[in-house]
Structures are given as structure tokens and as C-alpha cells.
TrEMBL record:
Record's keyword terms, sorted: Coiled coil
Biological source species: Rhinolophus ferrumequinum
Disordered as annotated region, ranges: 1-31
InterPro entries: REX1-B
Chain intervals with Low complexity compositional bias: 1-25
Transmembrane segments: none
Keyword Acyltransferase: no
Protein name: Required for excision 1-B domain containing
UniProt feature coiled coil, ranges: 39-66
Amino acid sequence: MITAEAAAESAIHTAPEAEAATGAPELEEPPWPWKDAPIQALVQRIHQLQAERAQAFRRLEEGHRQYLRSGPPYDFPRYRSKVHEVTQAFAAVSREVLAVEAELAGPRAQPLLAGHVRSLQQLEQTRLATVALLQLMGAPELTGQENTLQTHQLKMKVIKTMEAISEVLQDLRFDAEFVE
């Protein structure tokens, strides 16, 4: 399967005059590799992208654990770098998920499937925001200010969001079986 990174690496140089004028090559967006793919391939790609998100969440959690173990003094620059790296991974996945959603909603005329993908994207945004808040609440700078009830509620929100994500993925897979 083609990943977002592979698609980015296959960008084609264009407009040599623009390159000469600015000193930097202009890149033309390559055609989207899933344009003519069967619906089942798009659904499979969504599942692969979810696996990439899960891996990014693991890297974020591990980066936070390393940060907490690093001090005092805490190695914030390293943690910030990890957060930046993971943010880029989340953004790349989100761009591709949105492209699949647009393909399903537009040319494929599959509003039900597109709705599942949109729900998935919204749930993942909620999950990421909640995990980020939990990490912030666990920051060493806030030690002694913990609100255990709020922390518990946020952890429960993450669990419920993950359950909802699993349900949407199941619905997507089930509903896609009846499309083609």
C-alpha cells in the first residue's frame, strides 16, 4: 500500500523557471493514489491509518513517560521534539483520512461511509485533546495540584472514546460490505 510519506516522496518537480527564480524546486502534488481504488481498499486504508494513529499515540505516551522520568531537571526540549514529531504524524494521517472522506462523499456517492469516516475523525480529535489534557495535568510543574476526580473522568472519557472509535470502525467495515 502507498503511505502518505511515499506519496510525498514521489512529488514531481515542475516549473523550472520558478525553481530558478526562488532557488527552491516547486513540487506538484502527485495524483491521489486511491482515486480509482475499490471501496473495500479505501476502508482497508482507513483501518491502516487507524493503526498508524495507534502507533503515534504509543509514541506520545512513551515520550511523556520519558519526560516524567527525566528529572528534575526535566528534559522538556526532548519532550517538545517528540510532541512535534507525533503531531506531524497525526496531521499526515488526518489529511489522508479527510481525503478518503471527500472521495466517499463526492465521486463515490457513499454518504453513509463518509459519515462514518467523519465520525471517526471527530472521535480521534476528542481522544487526542483528552490525552493531551491528561498529560498536561500530569506535568511535574503541577505536582500537588492534581484533581484525582477530574483525572479519573478524563481517563474514562478516553476509554469511552476508544470504544466509540471501535464501534465506528466496525460500522464502517460492515456497511462497506454492502456497497460493492
